[in-house]
Amino acid sequence: MDKLAVYPGSFDPITNGHLDLLERGLKIFDQIVIAIATNPAKQPVFAIEERLELIRLSLEDHPLRGRMRVDAFEGLLVEYVKKVKANAILRGLRAISDFEYEFQMALMNRKLSNEIETLYLMTGMRWIYISSRIIKEVVSSGGCVTGLVPVPVEKALVERLGPSATSKHPNSL
Questions:
Q1: pLDDT tens string 9-55
Q2: What pairs with residue 53 in β-bridges?
Q3: pLDDT of 118-145, one tens digit each?
Q4: Whether residue 24 lies in the annotated active site
Q5: Bridge partners (DSSP) listed for residue 37
Q6: Catalytic annotation on 94?
Q7: Is 85 a catalytic residue?
Q8: Is 42 a catalytic residue?
Q9: Choosing from 10, 58, 132, 140, which is the catalytic residue?
Q10: Smallest Cα–Cα separation from 141: which of 118, 111, 166?
Q11: From 10, 18, 136, 140, the catalytic residue
Q12: Neighbouring C-beta atoms of residue 2, cutoff 10 Å
């Protein structure tokens, strides 16, 4: 039986830190589903369909892409995990500030479905300061994020959020 994990997140956008966590997760799991969660509390820059495409483009030449798939879901994460027949949730932790929220979510998920485990990997030191939010702020202020996000993501961000684009797009920061 394959070991399958779900790596949930908003991925607005996916970063090289996310990709690093995926690669490391594939040392533990046979396959990982990158699952874009719909979060009504967030105002995404990219629509779900755009995020799915950006992730696919980012993985296009990845040597492990055959062991990763991309999907989106609404509702409870544990229900989605059951639906895809996974038994684990993969999450990353950057700092102590992530821990409290992640701990609460893991406990609630355990309460909802005690057969699903949550596994945390510490973010690689190279990516510890990276978050999708910070990436968007840097691009919208005219900064360079080369090497911090996959090339297709950087292009999409500059087009959507670059200083000349901010007045043109309704989802701009």
A1: 999 999 999 999 999 999 999 999 999 998 778 889 999 999 999 99
A2: none
A3: 999 999 899 999 999 999 999 999 999 9
A4: no
A5: 73
A6: yes
A7: no
A8: yes
A9: 132
A10: 166
A11: 18
A12: 9
Residue 167 predicted with pLDDT over 70 = no
**Nearest of 15, 18, 148 to residue 90 by alpha carbon:** 18
What are the CB-based long-range contacts (under 8 Å, 24+) for 25-30? 25/90, 25/119, 25/121, 26/64, 26/67, 26/68, 28/3, 28/119, 29/3, 29/4, 29/5, 29/88, 29/90, 30/2, 30/3, 30/4, 30/67
Structural domains in the chain?
4-129 (3.40.50.620)
Q: Are 4 and 87 in contact (CB under 8 A)?
A: yes
The pTM of this model reads 0.90
Mean pLDDT, all residues of the chain: 91
Which has the higher per-residue pLDDT, 100 or 84? Answer: 84
pLDDT tops 90 at residue 115: yes
Catalytic residue among 67, 69, 94, 110: 94
State how far the Cα of 17 lies from the Cα of 15, in Å rounded to an integer. Answer: 5
